Amino acid sequence: AQVRQNGARLSTAENAFRQYRWQVKKLLQPGENELVVDFASATRFCAAHNQERMLNMANDALPGAPYLRKAPSHFGWDWGPKLPAVGIWREIRLEGRTTARLEDVHIRQHHENGSVSVELQVQAAVWGSALLSVSVSLTDPAGGVTLAQVPLVDDLGKVHLPVEAPQLWWPNGYGPQPLYHAEVVLLAGAAELDRRQYQIGLRTLELSQPLDEWGRSFTFVVNGVPIFAKGANWIPSDSFPTRLTSDHLEHLIRSAALAHQNMLRVWGGGYYEDETFFDLCDRYGILVWHDFMFACAIYPLDDPQFVENVRHEVVYNVRRLRHRACLALWCGNNEMEAGWVHWGWTRPETAGLKEADMTFFYKTLPIWIKEADPDHAYWPSSPSSGLPHEVPESPTTGDRHLWEVWHSNKPFQFYRQQFPRFASEFGFQSLPALQTVATYAKPDEWNMTSYIMEHHQRNKAGNGKIIAYLTDHYQMPKDFPALVYTTQVLQAEGIRIAVEHWRRQRARCSGALYWQLNDCWPVASWSSIDYYGRWKALHYAARRFFSPVMLSIEDEGTQMGLFITNDRTEPWQGEVRWTLETLSGEAMDAGKHAGSAKPLATTALPRLDFSSLVGPHNARRVVFVAELWQSGACLRRMVAPFVPDKHLELAAPGLDVSIELAGEQLSIRLQADSLARFVELSLEGADVIFSDNYFDLPAGRTVSITCPMPEGWDIAKAKQGLKIRSLKDT
User: Fold this and answer.
1) For a disulfide at 218, which of 54, 174, 385, 421, Cβ 3.0-4.6 Å?
2) Is the pTM of this model over 0.90?
3) Among 493, 340, 508, 332, CA closest to 423
4) In what order do the strands lie in the sheet with 572-582?
């Protein structure tokens, strides 16, 4: 864009990720003033540069996008449309200063033997000769205030504030998230010149990578506790960023926290999120792995002017976000090392760019970050082994993207053969809720091969892959609503198998971030929450497989392994009960084990072998049921069949259902005469989040599910609107 003030050209802006500042005092006039931002075509700009040297992105994107510092996914991705939005998307302001303003405030923490102090390094931009000072206040979560004031010397000041009885900030599931508020005021005598406010949480955080028996660890350690990172990848939440509301943003972050997630990876094909996003992550205890905005493409990093533009972007965003409690890691890019190693990027027109790439991400960028933020770890690419363009998918060190399931058509059981140190991407698609499909497709278009359904599937082979995997596990659904339901169950089961396996390997694997949490438009995709905020089956499953204390089954033929994974910092005591039973609930064998689980570890229970009880004669009519109990309550119930679900001889479950009002919550009680597999609850005409959904209900068990009463509803309407479906109904 060309920027003009009262007809005079200020400059050109070619970076959506940075702040621009221009001196306009001499251009201003009394009364009305006119600021003109004259946007040129981003697509023409990129295409013109691409004619000189072709740097096409992956995913069939519009050509030349790497030449412009704009969200890469705006130019098209395999889950989003080609919509390079144009406009002013963050604030514009006119600042009037006399004497001085705050140029930079760097907040650091010092932790030693349980004591904490906060250090603020202040730099001012000064135009006058006044004696300047900076006043700093730190307000604790209870409202107590600590004050300090120091003079500026050579435009610089440093303040140390001891914190009385410090309250530590923890990731979700490991402790509370107390937040402190720092306020910095620049003064000339008693006159206030400038003021800034910051939200901070007191914690230590490091990326620990010691050598071990499997290679090199990749573990985030917070306040001395090794964390298993549980979460998802984050993409832009709307194709048009100014359409995103703070309420919807909070719904997404709160939903991640409700599913026991503690980390989101801000993926490098989007943009640096605004303050509201980080406020929410601070508040809900969601750590942020933050890519810089480079993804799946070759960039002109041999161009000094381009690199200098990026330097402004990096310094601005690192300074803006480095004080955040939620910030866990700076990562150079998404999949660019994998591109150079595996995707055939070395061509005559890219000569010299591989070396420029290595120089930038292994030398230049980490130097910039260390200067601006020495307190956070840097990782060069995702995935990466930490060595320049060497084995970016190493099983012994660094992070991995595991796409053999889906892109390479490997079965779900493939996950159990993989032992990454940190799984930062893996995923499987499903359709969104039927109500969401209905916003873009009419009922006569509800067919996986209709034009509109294929248009809202940006992965070229996506719909065919869904059907192929579906028929491996389930019978062909009887109609389109049943198909929507079954694709969601399929997605949930695939990701469950992966996450449960890697959490069982807690000593070896330190994180599982599935692709992806959210959508930018209504679409068939890898998300667990669709564009309108509706939880898919995967998100309910995540609430179970990310639970702090997780029961899991490792089924191999007629053998069943039981495991308790305990992410808590204290031991867990309870009981595991199991039965081998028919679909109608007749017990063939049963047992129980004292569930004593060590903290921050996985505990294996004795392996069970049912080869003498289960065989071809009855495998379709028998299932293994395991339950996790504590204090008289069943915390988790799992069902493992001995054949694919499509071959189970499921009968009508004969559900007995009662519903009543308990305060402002609906309480729904269900019992089954025969196994009800993947029970789905919905309230027709309302969007609610249930306490559990898409769950198994074996014969004879009772389960109670709650949800908020929709606004304006009564119990009669709730009874009429309640719809229940299980796998047998499809």
Assistant:
1) 421
2) yes
3) 508
4) 587-597, 572-582, 622-630, 633-641
